[in-house]
Amino acid sequence: MKLFARGQVVERLAFLAMFAALTRGFYSRSTFVRPKRAIGSTTLRWMALGENEVDGSEALPPKANLYREWTLEQDRLLWSNKEKSAAELASLLGRGIRGVETRLSKLQDVSSPAYERLFAQTEDLPEPKEKLVPVSEVLRRVEWDYMLSPSDFSILYYDRMEDKTMESPMDATNDSVAGTETLLAKALPEHRILGVKYKERMVWDRNARLDVVFSPPGIYEVMETYDDWQKERDRVQAWNRQRQQLVAERIESILGVQAYERLQQLSANLLQVEKGSTQSIKAEVENYVQQTLELFRQVRKDPSLSNNPLLVPTGDYYALDELSELVAVLPNVELREMLLTDISMAMRKAEGKDNRSAPKMVEIELPEEELTETFVRGSGPGGQKINKTSNRVLLIHEPTQLRVECQDTRSLQQNRKIARKRLKEKLDEYLNGSQSKLGMKQQKASTKRQKSKSKNRARVRKKQLEKQLQPPQDNVEDPEEFY
Fold first, then answer.
1. Contact in structure between 59 and 101 (CB atoms under 8 Å)
2. Is 349 found in the same domain as 246?
3. Taking 60 as the threshold, does the pLDDT of residue 301 lie above it?
4. Are residues 245 and 290 in the same domain?
5. In the structure, how many helices (H) and strands (E) does the chain have?
6. What is the rounded average pLDDT of the residues 313-319?
7. Domain, as residue range, for 79
8. Considering 358, 381, 409, which residue would you say is the last residue of a domain?
9. Residues 6+ apart with CB under 8 A from 191
10. Shared domain check, 203 and 294
């Protein structure tokens, strides 16, 4: 090995240090940072940027702004809520409507890498519980567990007077519900309590069927890891603010200065309506979406109005998708869901799904004048109440001659209700076929069986491949055979 003199070594080390400093300066993050520009405070205020606006030095590199990889947790959340609408999923995940629909279609394709990743990771996971622990057990646990402090918990409940979901500390006094209970959490009926939070983290949710108080990871683990959860939440919120700012800049570049100022004014008007009555906000949301869509149409007709004509959407569908990317990270949950629902309906209409792709469903009604109802004596076990009273219902739908019978209970009124329910289901299947409730249920069961078969085949192929890749074992003869 060639040796260098001390002077040569020092010179080489100094050169390497200078080269490293230069490369750090050339490839540093600051070279990718775009200059920070002032954006209208009105729009940013209702978009939750305002004073929480991320400093320009923390901006993401170009072309890494609007898209982020789907994590396994997001795929699981999307799959577990796949029955919800595209607007609800976009609100839940903070993504655009088109991106959510595309990802869900990939997860439903058994041959896609996304499907394989999701179900390969979830094969060994424990099955979710069928029954959710009642909220009364959660409240009792918080009250009597000496390791827990009720002041750290709060409840989400439905207020019938305000007609919305409200939050209250668990140790708050009862000032509104009649009764002798002094605490609001105990005075409220169980069906009105929708969730329980530990500080800012939801630990019990009726709609999402979430329970981490009794189920893993458990409330003690939640308390120990709360700081880590809060840091992760803050990181996601910061990324959402960055993404929201980048989308706002993109829309400003598409619409131009004048149209973007008009969008700011529309956003300010919508914010004022949000502070007012809840009944008029739906009409204002529809008006907001339509007026925003009209701004995109004007730019599409005259691309010279845009700062970047190459980014102008080619149709209403893609313009609405740009708007959904912005609305998906709006902090106000109720306003966000209403906007995304209206945007989703407008996207379906722009894509032509309302008239061409989606089959027209027949609304099922059972007018009494179209029914012929008779009561006869029943048969079978049940004693005199069944065999000597006319409590068996025969119901006929005259236009279609569909017929049902009901003798499930000894009550005539209950049998009449059940007979009408069965006739409505039978008429739904008769008129709507595969799009009826029963047909959709059968399709869902068939799809579930197909996916289960594909998972089993993939598991068998994996075992066969592992068996083929195993090295052959040497057959060493037993020395005793020679004696």
1. no
2. yes
3. yes
4. yes
5. 17, 8
6. 86
7. 35-125+240-358
8. 358
9. none
10. no
> Do 245 and 386 fall into the same domain?
no
Domain membership of residue 405 (yes or no) is yes
pLDDT above 90: residue 221: yes
Residues 58 and 87 in one domain: yes
**Confidence tier at 1 by pLDDT (50, 70, 90):** very low
Amino acid type, 89: L
Other Cβ atoms less than 10 A from the Cβ of 330: the count is 20
| 120 and 246 share one domain | yes
Peptide bond into 359 cis (omega under 30): no
Cβ 306 vs Cβ 299: under 8 Å: yes
Ranges of H-type helices in 50-123 = 72-80, 86-93, 97-108, 113-121
CATH number at residue 419: 3.30.160.20
pLDDT for the residue numbered 121: 55
List, in order, residues 6 or more apart from 111 with CB less than 8 Å away.
none
Cα first-last separation, the chain:
58
What's the structural domain count of the chain? 3
Distances (CA, A) of 442 to 109, 217, 365, 434, 439: 19, 35, 23, 9, 5
Whether 225 and 232 have beta carbons less than 8 Å apart is answered as no
In this prediction, residue 279 carries a pLDDT of: 55
What digits encode the pLDDT tens for the residues 263-293?
888 888 887 765 555 556 778 888 888 888 8
- Check whether residue 145 and residue 103 sit in a common domain: no
The model's pTM is 0.52
Q: Are 37 and 65 spatial neighbours (Cβ–Cβ below 8 Å)?
A: no
Tens digit of each residue's pLDDT (9 = 90 or more) over 351-396: 775 444 445 555 677 888 888 888 887 776 666 666 677 788 899 8
Q: Is residue 21 part of a domain?
A: no
Residues 374 and 458 in one domain: yes
Tokens of 373: 């109802």
Predicted confidence (pLDDT) per residue in 401-457, tens digit: 888 988 888 788 888 889 988 888 888 888 777 777 777 787 778 777 877 887 788
